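Incident log, support desk, overnight shift.

02:14 A customer reports that sequence design results differ from what the structure should imply. Their input is reproduced verbatim below. On-call engineer (initials T.W.) acknowledged and began investigating.
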């Protein structure tokens, strides 16, 4: 790349000298200068063609490297609260540097732009030397305005991209609304509610909010072009006149004069071109935002990747005076105290928004309490690098990976997939019949765009997520956390599942969140969360005898179920 760039940038000066040489030999044998000039021309062509491919290769390698750096930084922190902040989300989008808009440039393009700019100075020195050989005083006359021109071009592009980056929020929304009509999952609702026109207008509004100021600036840039033209034409015209006058009046060599003229032109064309500046300035945000993300998302010492670790028994887990909120003005946990005994099957119930899922996220360590501690056998889980390997979690919003069934399950535990263990997890999750019905069984891709690929129903995806967690349990995890793992399952499948989970005895602690109270009644203990703390705690019988909120909820659900309704309850129904 560097060699090619050097050839490209020095060819104008060599061409200028060769042209001058040719002109001095016109009356005699001009074979040698003609050959040199032809070689310069040929080399320029070959270099021009091959450099495009090499540039593309270099750009894609640099961009790939940058993208994996962004992905590494984005997934490097053990907690997720910082990732959820809007400003960090914006930084991530900007650092990803997707060339989704015509003005945005990638780091690869920027890096190449910077390299070419550097090489341009080599070409500049060569051209300036040719001009200087003819007349040293002509060098500053040409160089000073050329540098001024370059300064103005850089300032213009800086301003362009500053305005562009200032509308980033609109750009983000523009992309969001623009991608919505293309998604399979959104297609139904958009049609049912007749949202097509509304969506297109919204998309266009955001586009204009973002780009109108940019276009306004660019129009001003276009209007200023004549000043830039004057800045290059005036000194060039002065140089041309001086060279022509001296050549005519003093009879100096036409060849040397024409070499000087060509080199003078070279100085301006080298400094005036704005393509590299645009690429450099356009890619600046992607690069500086990655640097800022590196600062902000610096992993803590114990944020090492999850490893298998030595399997050990389930610990005593203690939530000690936990306070937590996603934002300071909306506390979710307000002094929560809870012990989870080793091997216990604990059910957590409560109304929507009571904080049940938040409890699982705190237990998984993806959020840290604002105050208080979560201890596992006396050690704060925040200080335990192995903590994650002891947990298997099915989050409410688990990921549906577009991989095969087996690959989806194997993600539950690092290392080489164990097929026997995968099959065991599939059966335990009640997913065996579904897998047996698939043409390629465990190797079936769960992606309809792939050959032989299928999609699963909501309940089947949930069983698959459960199988992933059970695979992790088989490979050494000792705490199984299930956040509404059966919301999409029918009552019988759900019952079978919980009967099977009961078979792990003291080797596994299970924390189960469910709205279906008939499911959790067999748990060793049930805790009811309300107002950021444990409001009731005991076995089903104890809580029924207490006659509190749990008993009320249970009775209502039982009545509804008897009358043929769904047995879920919303808070308002109790009032
Ligand atoms: N990522 C988040 N950012 C900001 N607020 C959140 C976030 N997740 C949850 N919340 C808020 O925290 C509170 C507790 O939510 P959580 O999901 O823990 O409740 P839940 O008991 O699991 O509810 P549900 O039964 O509906 O699943 C709610 O008020 C919710 O709006």
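02:41 Re-run completed on a clean worker. Output:
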């Amino acid at each position: 790349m560097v060699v090619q760039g050097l050839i490209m940038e020095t060819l104008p000066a060599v061409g200028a000298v060769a042209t001058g040489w040719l002109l001095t030999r016109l009356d005699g044998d001009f074979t040698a200068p003609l050959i040199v000039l032809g070689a310069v021309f040929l080399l320029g062509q070959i270099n021009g063609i091959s450099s495009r491919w090499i540039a593309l290769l270099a750009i894609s390698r640099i961009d790939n490297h940058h993208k994996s750096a962004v992905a590494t930084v984005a997934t490097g922190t053990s907690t997720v609260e910082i990732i959820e902040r809007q400003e960090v989300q914006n930084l991530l989008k900007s650092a990803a540097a997707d060339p989704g808009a015509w003005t945005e440039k990638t780091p690869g393009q920027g890096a190449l732009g910077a390299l070419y700019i550097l090489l341009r100075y080599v070409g500049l020195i060569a051209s300036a030397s040719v001009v200087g050989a003819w007349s040293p005083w002509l060098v500053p006359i040409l160089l000073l305005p050329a540098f001024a021109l370059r300064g103005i071009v850089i300032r213009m592009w800086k301003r362009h991209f500053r305005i562009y980056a200032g509308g980033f929020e609109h750009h983000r929304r523009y992309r969001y609304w623009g991608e919505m009509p293309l998604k399979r999952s959104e297609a139904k609702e958009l049609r049912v509610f007749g949202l097509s026109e509304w969506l297109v207008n919204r998309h266009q509004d955001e586009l204009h909010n973002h780009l109108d100021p940019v276009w306004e600036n660019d129009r001003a840039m276009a209007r200023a072009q004549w000043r830039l033209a004057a800045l290059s034409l005036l000194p060039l015209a002065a140089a041309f006149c001086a060279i022509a006058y001296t050549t005519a009046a003093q009879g100096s060599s036409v060849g040397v004069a024409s070499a000087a003229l060509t080199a003078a032109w070279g100085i301006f064309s080298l400094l005036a071109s704005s393509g590299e500046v645009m690429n450099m300035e356009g890619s600046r945000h992607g690069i500086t935002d990655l640097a800022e993300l590196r600062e902000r998302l610096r992993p803590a010492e114990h944020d090492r990747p999850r490893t298998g670790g030595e399997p050990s028994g389930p610990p005593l887990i203690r939530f000690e005076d936990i306070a937590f909120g996603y934002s300071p003005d909306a506390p979710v946990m307000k002094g929560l105290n809870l012990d989870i005994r080793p091997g216990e099957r604990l059910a957590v119930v409560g109304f929507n928004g009571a904080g049940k899922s938040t409890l699982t996220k705190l237990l998984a360590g993806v959020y840290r309490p604002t105050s208080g501690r979560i201890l596992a056998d006396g050690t704060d889980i925040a200080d335990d690098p192995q903590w994650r390997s002891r947990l298997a979690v099915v989050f409410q919003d688990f990921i549906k990976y577009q991989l095969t069934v087996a690959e989806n399950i194997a993600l539950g535990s690092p290392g080489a997939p164990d097929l026997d263990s995968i099959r065991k997890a599939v059966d335990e999750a009640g997913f065996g019949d579904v897998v047996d019905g698939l043409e390629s069984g465990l190797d079936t891709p769960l992606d309809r765009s792939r050959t032989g690929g299928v999609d699963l129903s909501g309940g089947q995806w949930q069983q698959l997520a459960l199988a992933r967690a059970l695979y992790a349990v088989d490979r050494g995890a000792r705490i199984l956390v299930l956040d509404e793992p059966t919301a999409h399952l029918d009552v019988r499948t759900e019952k079978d599942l919980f009967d099977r989970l009961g078979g792990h005895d003291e080797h596994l602690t299970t924390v189960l969140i469910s709205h279906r109270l008939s499911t959790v009644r067999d748990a060793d203990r049930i805790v009811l969360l309300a107002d950021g703390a444990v409001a009731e705690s005991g076995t089903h019988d104890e809580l029924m005898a207490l006659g509190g909120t749990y008993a009320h909820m249970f009775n209502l659900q039982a009545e509804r179920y008897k009358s043929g309704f769904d047995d879920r309850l919303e808070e308002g129904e109790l009032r």
